[in-house]
Amino acid sequence: MHRGEYRDGGGVVLDDVMFVVFRGPKSYTGEDTLEISCHGNPLIVRRILDDLIARGCRLAAPGEFTQRAFLGGRMDLSQAEAVMDVIHARSERALEAANRQLRGALGRRTAAAVDRLLGVVARVEAYIDFPEEDLPAEDQAMVEDGIRSIAADAAKLRATKHYGDVLRGGLRTVIVGKPNAGKSSLLNRLVGYERAIVSPEPGTTRDFIEEQIMIGPHSVRLIDTAGLNPSPTLLEGFGIEKTRERIEDADLVLLVVDATQADGYTVDGNVISGDAPTLLVKNKVDLLTGTNDRGAGEQRPGNEVRVSAKTGEGLSELVTAIAGFADRLQTDIGEETIAINARHAAALAEVERCAAAALEKLKTGEPMELLASDLRGALHAWEEISGKIDNERMLDQLFATFCIGK
């Protein structure tokens, strides 16, 4: 690092700056790089940029430095994607997962799977390309076990996509219940201010309201919906239809009921449908007395929390329950937490498809050339994740394993 004056092409001093020279290949991109740190005045920044452009420089395209780092072999494609995940992380868990991927967690898993698959491909292609060599008897069971192992690795990694979606977009938590159960009051209490209009008049919420908040180390998208009125007006009906749509996309449903009402737990079962788990939230516990505690002795399936959206009673227990649910979405695949994105999931699905096709060909006794083609498809799909597709590696593995031509 060097301190000095920045002079433009005409010799005019524009600022007192710090110059830092990074010599390749140890720089971010792997190339020789010069960084100039000037004072933060936008006018100074603009004048220095204008001078650099006048000297023949150009502005970098979006993501160009990371692209250069990838092309220069400084990182694989999954690490390059992690750079953007780090920048856009909205929660502690998302930042932790992004940093692990940036340090190569997914790349290491991919590299290990590719190495194992190369061994299977090498074994299959050796019998195709060198039938006259003195090779050991073909072991179909070993090939089959290898293919199944690769497919299992892909399936296990692909199962982390849901958690990856939650980390990147937030836990989609839909608040549902009857009119006047206190859904909007609960939203306001969790958000910390009056986000939704609260009124004793049923049907106040006609459309859904969404807010993103932090609950523990997680980002949570809270969605308040129209009350589930069994006899809605035309306008309420439109709101309830949108409620159904939100439930279908939910990661978690908070079913809010009025703990003081005898029929508070009865909700149209046709509306509360979908794959998302449901957390029962008994609201208005501040109004309960010994004579109207309707739910005190009831046994409800699944988890439940007793709260008062008015006073805040039980709110910490609700927050803990939501954070605990988000933690349980994490798929255990070893020491490192990995949460893939949609591109990775598509590649892994292709690995599983190719592996299934290869197993079917192995079972029916089809030509080994067709089996090898499926395995190469799986290999290509695995390497799409890291962006490193190198068919020469397969040849190296083949000759090293079988010592052909020794």
Report on the architecture of this protein.
The chain has 13 helices and 9 strands. The protein is α/β, with parallel strands linked by helices. It folds into 3 domains: 2-71, Gyrase A, domain 2 (2-Layer Sandwich), CATH 3.30.1360.120; 81-160 and 337-402, Four Helix Bundle (Hemerythrin (Met), subunit A) (Up-down Bundle); 169-328, 3-Layer(aba) Sandwich (Rossmann fold). The strands form 2 sheets. It has a 6-stranded mixed β-sheet with strand order 5-6-4-7-8-9, with helices on both faces. Strand 1 and strand 2 (13-22) form a beta hairpin. The two termini are 54 Å apart. The model is unreliable at 295-302 (pLDDT under 50).
- Tell me the number of helical segments per DSSP (H or I, 4 or more residues long): 13
CATH homologous superfamily identity of the largest domain: P-loop containing nucleotide triphosphate hydrolases
Number of domains: 3
Spatial strand sequence of the major β-sheet: 5-6-4-7-8-9
Tell me how many strands there are: 9
User: Main beta sheet: strand number and arrangement?
Assistant: 6 strands, mixed
Shape: flat
